[in-house]
Specification:
Blueprint: E1 8-10, E2 13-15, E3 27-28, H1 36-40, H2 44-57, E4 68-70, E5 78-80, H3 92-104, H4 136-145, H5 154-157, H6 160-172, E6 182-183, E7 190-191, E8 196-197, E9 206-207, E10 215-216, E11 236-237, H7 259-264, H8 271-278, H9 282-293
Helix pairs in contact: 3-4, 6-9
């Protein structure tokens, strides 16, 4: 990696500049994901169609919002956002370039200016092309595109409790936002403002993210607008549930230590589903948790 990152990314979160100096430590949790190459390969229209259908199937209660965000590697071009808790990016390279700056303090061609000069010792941008003409953000974006989709626990998924739990999941209305299946764009589709072409390995694949990748108001938002419009301040992207079984913490802020707590925190657009969950008996709740534990 070119340049000297001034922040260090660890399993516990981001350690910001001057970590270790008394009174200067700033830490926050981060949740990693796999299979994002498939998410990038979802055509914009697929997400827009899901958004258009939600009010009709939920009697107007649920209305996911798709926002157009800049593609940093293609100036002047936009795409439906799908990465980040506020859907602030629509391409993996944009997402990676932003994370290099804001999570690790490494400036790059997409984000060439530091947000702080504390501890600054190198010239911007720090991430420069190698002998192949590729910067570290290019290599990392390709690595992320190549990660596999998190596998389910096949044995648990076939158990009677998990099967019953999935029926409850659908009956409660959770699948309206946590969409089980989406098909990616065909191979050869040009996306990201012309900067990337969907390869055979990612194209025309049925994936099971259990997310619509849209913004919803479930009353756990942070009040921050990262991309217009203003009404996104209280909204968050639907968390994909694939790989849920290996996560020790839940929700966007990772503040829920149990699945039951994560579900009951849902309000706003998800209030009806959360109330239905609270009305379930102990055995039914456990069946639903067993299904989620299989993802």
């Amino acid at each position: 990696m070119h340049g000297r990152p001034r922040d260090r990314l660890t399993a516990g979160g981001t350690i910001h500049p001057n970590a270790g100096r008394r009174g200067r430590d700033v830490r926050s949790c981060r949740a990693g994901t796999l299979g994002d190459g498939f998410v990038e390969a979802i055509d914009d229209q697929a997400l827009l169609t899901i958004a258009a259908q939600q009010p009709g199937v939920s009697q107007g209660r649920i209305h996911g919002e798709a926002i157009e965000v800049p593609v940093l590697e293609s100036p002047g071009q936009t795409r439906v956002g799908r990465f980040g808790w506020k859907d602030q990016h629509g391409s993996l390279l944009s997402f990676v370039g932003d994370a290099y700056l804001n999570e690790m303090g490494v400036t790059n061609r997409l984000r060439p200016k530091d947000v702080t000069t504390i501890g600054k010792t190198t010239a911007d941008p720090e991430d420069l092309p190698d002998a192949l003409g590729l910067a570290d953000i290019d290599h990392f974006a390709e690595f992320v595109r190549g990660t596999k989709v998190p596998p389910r626990d096949a044995a648990l998924a076939e158990s009677p409790d998990a099967i019953a739990g999935q029926a409850l999941f659908e009956g409660l209305g959770c699948e309206t936002c946590h969409v089980e299946s989406i098909t990616t764009a065909p191979p050869g589709t040009v996306i990201n403002g012309g900067a990337f072409t969907v390869p055979d390995a990612l194209g025309n694949k049925i994936i099971h993210p259990f997310s619509d990748f849209l913004l919803h108001d479930i009353k756990t938002g942070d009040g921050i607008v990262q991309n217009p419009p203003q009404d996104t301040a209280g909204k968050l992207r639907t968390a994909p549930l694939w790989g849920l079984r290996v996560r020790p913490r839940f929700m966007h802020d990772l503040q829920s230590l149990t699945l039951e707590d994560a579900i009951t925190r849902h309000r706003g657009e998800a209030d009806r589903a959360a109330r239905r969950f609270r009305a379930l008996g102990p055995d039914e709740k456990q069946q639903l948790v067993t299904f989620l534990d299989s993802l």
